Amino acid sequence: EEKPSLPFNASFDPSNPLGLLDKVLDFIGKESYFLLKDTADKEIASAVTAAKKRLREAEEEEESLTPLEKKLKPTEPIEVEKLRKESLEPTEPIEVEKLRKESLKPTEPIEVEKPKEREFTFGAIPKKWNVTLGEVPNKGNGLDFEKYSWTQDHEEVTITIPVPSGTNPRYVTCEFNTYRLKVCLQGGQHTIIDGALFGAVNPNDCFWYLEDEKVIWVLLRKQDWHGWWKYCMKGEPEIDTQKVDRKSSKLDELDPETRSKVEKMMFDERQKHDLKKKSMSQNHSLRMQREPWFWRNLTNKQKPSLLPFNASLDPSNPLGFLEKVLDFIGKESDFLLKDTAEKEIASAVTAAKKRLREAEKKKEQKDSLKPLEKKLKEESSQPMEVEKPKKESLKPTEPMEVEEKPKEEEGPIVPNKGNGFDFETYSWTQNLQEVTVTIPVPSGTKPRSVTCEIKKNRLKVGIKGQEPIIDGEFFNAVKPDDCFWNIEDQKLISVLLTKQDQMEWWKCCVKGEPEIDTQKVEPESSKLSDLDPETRSTVEKMMFDQRQKQMGLPTSDEMEKKDMMKKFMSQHPEMDFSNAKF
């Protein structure tokens, strides 16, 4: 039996196309076995290539259309069958005589309204901007339109836009993208330019400025310096690039004084742009710390609106569903135009496969535990059979004498790997110089909700409004000025304590805890190299004495005393040491 098509609804964020792709791959993995196939990666890669090809063909077809053809291009499919049926439906009979009489009646003269002259909302435009559209480029190798004009050379494209006299620069908005340009006034209320560019530009090298509060100059830096643009914005008439004057420039039309002034302004704008870019990169982290609300609001404003995506998945043809998704992503974003699109999609597929395998493992584990849980439930539901006591057991018996076992004396406990001990609420480790206490807390705990008081002989740690987790005296004194605490990943408090006596192992962190066996402490050999020679020799002596005691052999001090007695006896042979006790 064929499975019915499954509906899929999601929101698409153009700034994060891979987010939609991850949801789609998880949905396909859940509802079909497509991702488990060995050839899934190759099929998806070929689907991506085909989607990119379709996207390029659609762009080329759109570029080849004239403005009139674009207007006449139907946006919705025409239902031919419906129109044919409607045309065949019987209509009311036409009264020919009545129409003839009405047509012979004198009629009133028809008043034809004269078309109103087109007005430009942004202010008066000089006559030089009202030029007839054509394919022959202007003197600056571009074209002149009603709202703006553009010129170009090998490296740059310059757009000049007339605006109402007295326009303030803060009312101008200019957004640069690699393939798009948007220029508007009064916060986007009046859009002058908004569309795709002929070629790619370097957004970091593009800038704009307002000249005499009446003309906006926009400078675009081309990525490809070896080609002439046929148009500036998509949808414009194309110029004949063979008629381009390669030596001409818009600045050449100006007189020397004005030209030097414009070139100076352009240079100053480039310098300002570079300085602004440098200072932004240097002070980014500082501004993030001082004004987090500003950056949060800024990013929220810049986030594009979410676009709805609705489609149906046929489990027998998951590639068809994936092709719809790729076409949608290509239409609504520039993701598929990136050189790294195939690699990013391949890594997304790999991640989706990994998630699918992990989900299957969890499902298998749950399925394997189900029979055991069922058996336990059945056993717990059955009543327990209790044997009846025999009559003999009811007879009075002699009281039993129970020997009380003597309580075993609790000795020192074995330390953990960090030479400390692990408790339910916290654990501690140590070396000769420091003691580290780690306390797990609920996930999401913030530093301001933690209380930590470190004194010379006392420690108190806890969460505000709750009983302290640790509150007691240290085994030995610490240096409060050299102690500190921090919270890791908002779920673990770490307290570092610096010992005053750095030649002794602590038996416990806080008095009242079980004491560890310091003879079983294992100091890190690698740490001895960090000590100064005097401290190192002392530590090595202590370690040697501990080993000797464990084996029942004399310590270094006892061996030294014996050697001294032997020397003294050899120096005084006349003395009798037979009855001497050592």
From TrEMBL:
Lineage: Eukaryota, Viridiplantae, Streptophyta, Embryophyta, Tracheophyta
Protein name: CS domain-containing protein
Superkingdom in the source lineage: Eukaryota
UniProt biased composition (Basic and acidic residues): 358-395, 517-548
Residue ranges occupied by any CS domain in the UniProt entry: 143-233, 421-510
Region (Disordered): 358-416, 517-559
